[in-house]
């Protein structure tokens, strides 16, 4: 590597660059005099003029100054919003090529961490999404008063600059139209909206979740104080003007930075839950409960989990990181018993309610960390022989992997939303389990995110 080059270059310098491959975060990667260069929104086979945005001792960050020769993978009909807001980081790539690059991102991650025999892993072609646009069933829209005008939409990529949105290619139509109507009502009623300069105002975010099956909306207002001025008038206007809204809640978060949600959520009007159908089962979701953002593709994802597990009536299934119980409940008729574990107490309450709603009697649920509760179940003599893990982006805790390796089960299915932490976890899991195949699934078209279903069996 020619590290002298990084010492010679400065921010703003330009040079020609051919993009060779996709990086694990979806950026284009090229090499300038043997130094690696990361360029967002660049695609393999692009020939560009690259402008340096950041110089590091061992690599460079750049941006596209000019495209000299566009790659055959480029989408000629990229939406105008792709350069303005997040969530469209792959919209400049043709859809069939997005699928190939998602499998490449998975390979890149495996190459980085090198789990045992990873070169021989069977990585199946990425499963396409049922819908490539208007698939997102939920959105968190910041609302702010900026220079006397109310803006509501999404942040500009990598900034806290709010872009006012009337449309969003990946968002469902009903959600977008409801958001705009709510904003008009808020303006009309002169409800105090968060002003980031003055740190004033009450309302900071509108969260909308949509049920595809029942055509209903769950609306949550995130406020900076428990007091919600003109709450009653707001609810009455929403009832009149947006009949699809079946539930209105308030979440109180006094912090301007950090997590979107505060600890306290209260129902202001309507149903406590939003209902959705997944593979013929009905599920209740409270405002903070996790539901896959792509409802139509969730059915397909769970079918793939089912195929990987191959459940039988002999199976005692651990549904780890179970959320509101969706994966386990959709398998309840094909296994002997289900033990679900989830750290969020409200989610476990929802899981119990969902089991009851679907007349599932062979499921037990526990609140707490999976890595703590699973060993206790083993100590109690519960002979788990199959496991589905669906951890957050951070992957499995080290102690959970230790338990899985010390007590290997016949069948293990890992559902991952982060190829990097998956590859890292497979380094240790491969000591006791054989990786049968990895099945990438596109849950987030127009983005570099890839979900992966991994089938593992005891060695």
UniProtKB/TrEMBL annotation:
<feature type="binding site">
    <location>
        <position position="292"/>
    </location>
    <ligand>
        <name>S-adenosyl-L-methionine</name>
    </ligand>
</feature>
<feature type="binding site">
    <location>
        <position position="342"/>
    </location>
    <ligand>
        <name>S-adenosyl-L-methionine</name>
    </ligand>
</feature>
<feature type="active site" description="Nucleophile">
    <location>
        <position position="417"/>
    </location>
</feature>
<feature type="binding site">
    <location>
        <position position="390"/>
    </location>
    <ligand>
        <name>S-adenosyl-L-methionine</name>
    </ligand>
</feature>
<dbReference type="GO" id="GO:0070041">
    <property type="term" value="F:rRNA (uridine-C5-)-methyltransferase activity"/>
</dbReference>
<dbReference type="GO" id="GO:0070475">
    <property type="term" value="P:rRNA base methylation"/>
</dbReference>
<dbReference type="Pfam" id="PF05958">
    <property type="entry name" value="tRNA_U5-meth_tr"/>
</dbReference>
<dbReference type="InterPro" id="IPR030391">
    <property type="entry name" value="MeTrfase_TrmA_CS"/>
</dbReference>
<comment type="similarity">
    <text>Belongs to the class I-like SAM-binding methyltransferase superfamily. RNA M5U methyltransferase family.</text>
</comment>
<dbReference type="InterPro" id="IPR010280">
    <property type="entry name" value="U5_MeTrfase_fam"/>
</dbReference>
<feature type="domain" description="TRAM">
    <location>
        <begin position="8"/>
        <end position="66"/>
    </location>
</feature>
<dbReference type="InterPro" id="IPR012340">
    <property type="entry name" value="NA-bd_OB-fold"/>
</dbReference>
<dbReference type="InterPro" id="IPR002792">
    <property type="entry name" value="TRAM_dom"/>
</dbReference>
<dbReference type="InterPro" id="IPR029063">
    <property type="entry name" value="SAM-dependent_MTases_sf"/>
</dbReference>
<keyword id="KW-0489">Methyltransferase</keyword>
<keyword id="KW-0808">Transferase</keyword>
<keyword id="KW-0949">S-adenosyl-L-methionine</keyword>
<dbReference type="InterPro" id="IPR030390">
    <property type="entry name" value="MeTrfase_TrmA_AS"/>
</dbReference>
<protein>
    <submittedName>
        <fullName>23S rRNA (Uracil(1939)-C(5))-methyltransferase</fullName>
        <ecNumber>2.1.1.190</ecNumber>
    </submittedName>
</protein>
<feature type="active site">
    <location>
        <position position="417"/>
    </location>
</feature>
<dbReference type="Pfam" id="PF01938">
    <property type="entry name" value="TRAM"/>
</dbReference>
<feature type="binding site">
    <location>
        <position position="321"/>
    </location>
    <ligand>
        <name>S-adenosyl-L-methionine</name>
    </ligand>
</feature>
